[in-house]
Design goal:
208 residues, alpha+beta, Immunoglobulin-like, disordered N terminus
Length: 208
Amino acid sequence: MKRLFNLLLIGLCSSALFACVTVHGSGSGADCCECSRKAKAGEGGASESAAHATGLRGVVVDAAGQPLKAKVHLVTENGSQSTGTTTGGEFEFFQLRSNSYAMTVTTKDGRIASIPNVEIPSNYLRVPVLEEGSKLNLLVSGRQSLRFAISMGDTMLFNFSAGEGKESELVIPVGKVRVRLYGKDYSEERLVDSSLGERTNIVFEIDE
């Protein structure tokens, strides 16, 4: 009876080891036990690292370090992603596909901050929004399926779809800002020399 019990015990252990090797690849039973221990303890969890490997988190604050309600834009030459902050000023992006972005942060009261290059993945970002900006209103008439690319020097600020007949209102930094409207077989640029608290209106009228 005791011999039968020992044989059953050996069989169970062998089955467990085979299952571990099947899931984790070649390795020893000790490795399997270590994996199990880490999984139970929450160490080295693959799902947790994958969730943050292509993400970005941070907080937007004012000059006193207090959280701000703001809109956060991650911008590339091909487009952008945007999100609003929580009441605590925090923001988060998931499953970002690019390794780097320009970041633009704007508030409803007309403040703006821009970061030319944010590497992904990145540490938790603390973004102070101190600069008062200028308002820019854009309108496209006569054509659909176009995009706006807005930059200051070499720094991308915005890149978004231009809705035909739909006005877009933005906060931009004070100074020389380049506004490019582009699409298939079409490109047009305007240069805006914005002043503090000023509102600039630009209408693109396109004759097909």
